[in-house]
Design brief:
By secondary structure, this protein is of the alpha/beta class. It has 15 helices and eleven strands. The protein has helices at residues 10-18, 24-42, 52-64, 107-114, 157-164, 181-187, 221-231, 274-289, 305-320, 339-350, 353-366, 372-392, 418-422, 429-434, 463-474, and strands at residues 45-48, 76-80, 118-123, 170-174, 190-193, 214-218, 260-264, 293-297, 398-402, 438-445, 451-458. It has an eleven-stranded mixed sheet with strand order 1-3-2-4-6-5-10-11-9-7-8, with helices on both faces. Strand 2, helix 4 and strand 3 form a beta-alpha-beta unit. Helix 5 runs parallel beside helix 6 (181-187) and helix 9 packs across helix 12.
């Protein structure tokens, strides 16, 4: 084997496959073996597809016959089990869909396969993507590869843990309020939430339709750029996708351009831990040496973001999950005396406590007499928050901030305190409300060797500039050669 698959970049793996230095089958078997060995320990995958070796064999056959292959030729990818894959079980980590076999694939999965990626399996998540720690999954919680006593973050915790443990070089996650960036931060990898409408949501089991977005997670910024390039673009199956050309993100380069970077003072509050603040300051000072300028800015509506987000997200979830009633979709109870008891028992048996909590909150906010007082006001505040970001971007190219106020917390530490869990997303949800692209980039470690990341936020469809700057930021990492405990 002429390449170290443990730490190779996606582009290096793909090039090695295309030039026959290694076969797609060898690469797939390596990651398949590693995934099967580590999954009992980390629970990062809900299902691992051993038949993926057949995909790899077809790619090798195309290469041997001199046929053209795709941009992701032979690259094994984990897919969050919120995205449908044809003829495979898609569970959303819920008992409600534990036996649902999808008759079609999501647009994102189709685009990955069209570029000859290999789908290694379906990664674990918080049930219906509702959670910040990956502790609400019907299939059990995921463990952080850096320390198995700690959460990997959520809801895309399985994707983050799988990449960090090198069970796969790249994974796909979804981000409704920070569900890509927060677990990427907790697991020491790169995670990117694109601009709303940049990537199709077709075939993604909906949580909150005006907030959900699909994005890549990887060890390296350039790997995220390459995958984003593949999965982006308009889709006639998703009316919220935007008709706009897709840039060559993998070739984005700042060159000698010096950027104005905004630092929102609300994101650097006293709630920020000393270690996170220190690592961010070191990164900022290093970037200043490269000529980039930093300006403190004001985003005063940040304090209302949590309440705004949970009113909108839970209201949309209440509507989206109404279809799971034991008749049309999902789990159906056996013990019923009438139609009403069928609905009640099916949903009561199949939804977990966190999903029930959010559905009740959303149904209440949408109910007669409360819609104007809650949901409508939240939508108005969302519009004002969007205007605040637009004002910041009039004089700044990017925003830099922490991803979370502290590093990963211990499993079970916050599960009994929903409010404390929700506050974990306070620095990530605003970008979902505003529909802006954002990403987490690793910049160092805490004293207890848990990863610390920085968040970058760009103007709408500003992914190219954000990725270029992120690559520079990742090169400023204070740690070198650190590896998770599972290594």
């Amino acid at each position: 084997m002429s390449i170290s698959l443990i730490d190779a970049k996606a582009s290096e793996i793909i090039d090695a496959i295309k030039t026959k230095k290694i076969s797609a089958l060898e690469v797939t078997e390596f990651f398949l073996k590693r995934a099967n060995e580590l999954n009992p320990k980390l629970n990062a995958f809900i299902s691992i597809d051993s038949d993926c070796v057949e995909q790899a064999k077809l790619i090798d056959k195309k290469i041997s016959m001199g046929e053209p292959v795709g941009k992701l030729a032979g690259l094994p990818i984990g897919v969050k089990d919120l995205l449908c894959v044809k003829d495979q079980i898609t569970t959303a980590a819920s008992k409600m869909l534990a036996n649902f076999k999808s008759p079609y694939s999501s647009t994102v999965v189709d685009k990955l396969l069209a570029e000859d990626a290999v789908i290694l399996g379906k990664t674990n998540l918080d049930e219906f993507a509702m959670g910040s720690s990956n502790e609400t999954s019907y299939f059990g919680n995921v463990k952080n590869p850096w320390n198995e006593d700690y959460v990997p973050g959520g809801s895309s915790g399985g994707s983050a843990a799988a990449v960090a443990a090198r069970m796969c070089p790249v994974a796909i996650g979804t981000d409704t309020g920070g569900s890509i960036r927060q677990p990427a931060n907790f697991c020491g990898i790169v995670g990117l939430k694109p601009t709303y409408g940049r990537v199709s949501r077709y075939g993604v089991i909906a949580f909150a339709s005006s907030l959900d977005q699909v994005g890549p997670m990887a060890s390296y910024v350039e790997d995220c750029a390459l995958v984003l390039e593949v999965i982006s673009g308009s889709d006639e199956m998703d009316s919220s996708s935007v008709e706009q050309p897709v840039a060559e993100y993998s070739k984005a380069n700042l060159g000698s351009k010096k950027l104005n970077i905004a630092l929102p003072k609300q994101y650097f509050s006293e709630a920020l831990s000393a270690e996170v603040r220190e690592k961010l300051q070191l990164a900022i000072e290093s970037l200043k040496e490269d000529g980039h300028k930093f300006n403190e800015v004001d985003l005063p509506l940040t304090e209302y973001a949590i309440s705004t987000y949970y009113l909108i997200a839970c209201s949309e979830a209440s509507s989206n999950l109404a279809r799971y009633d034991g008749v049309r979709y999902g789990h159906r109870t056996n013990e019923v005396s009438n139609l009403e008891s069928l609905y009640v028992k099916s949903r009561s048996e199949a939804f977990g406590p966190e999903v029930k909590r959010r559905l009740m909150l959303g149904t209440y906010a949408l109910s007669s007499g409360y819609y104007d007082a809650y949901f409508e006001k939240a939508c108005k505040l969302r519009a004002k928050l969007q205007k605040e970001f637009l004002k910041v971007f009039e004089t700044n190219d990017l925003i830099l901030s922490p991803v979370t106020t502290d590093t990963a917390f211990k499993i079970g530490e916050r599960v009994s305190d929903p409010l404390q869990m929700y506050l974990n997303d306070i620095l990530t949800i605003s970008t979902n409300l505003a529909g802006l692209p954002a990403m987490s980039v690793p910049i160092g470690f805490s004293g207890n060797k848990m990863p610390i990341g920085a968040q970058l936020i760009a103007k709408a469809f500003g992914e190219s500039e954000m990725l270029s700057f992120a690559e520079l930021l990742q090169s400023k990492k204070i740690h070198k050669g650190e590896q998770p405990n599972v290594f």
